[in-house]
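Reply to dn_fold:

You asked what the input looked like. This is it:
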Amino acid sequence: MGQIQELVDRIESSERLDRLADRVEGVTRPLLTSPGVNAALTGRWLGHRAHPMAVALPIGCWTSAALLDLTGSADAARRLTGAGVLVAVPTALTGAADWLETSGPDRRTGVAHAALNDLAVGAFALSWLARRRQRRLLGAALSGVGLVGLGAAGYLGGHLAHARGVGVDVDPETLAVVDRPSPPPGPAESSEPAPTVPPAPEAADGTDLEALTKAELYEMAKRLELPGRSGMTKAQLLEALRDRRPGA
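and this is what came back:
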């Protein structure tokens, strides 16, 4: 996993991707930022982001087609391959709408994620064409190429969502209160000393790290060249930065 994280770190810090991102944004922003279109694609009508739900459609079609290739159901595999290509278009639009809200490392990773997905969709489109021309072996091989690209793109997408928090909207006022059973009554007094709570970590300049967002902690970790930072949670970033404090 260390090599994969190093590759992700290189993607996040590659300024060459900024030029590609600028071109993509120049095309997509005028199309996707009108209030009605943006609300539909980002999933405000759902109450959460639409992209995580939408990706299940093309992935389901293409993985099912691969399974049917193994069972000899060529016609059904061809139809599913074509259906996956069709539903990939609106799926990509939901992802693009989310990507327009990113910046810096997330923007670079997002454009790499999109490029890999585009290559995968292209491979599946060629697979459908080969299958239609009765070149089933070539079609299956191209589907395999598409699945590899899809897996690589999916890793970056998972990194954006789960490690970087892109597209994660949490409004404390909308969180439901879950009733939990009360813990069993314990002794009135305990002889054990109360656990010591460590002080909130501070940066060298006195900044309270607990008050920073995950993105801000990540930028600080990047400046300090902390290894494996791209896969860290906020708590792990705090711990790593605490260890880097003077006198730690």
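Residues 171-180, 197-201 have pLDDT under 50 and may be disordered.
Hope that clears it up.
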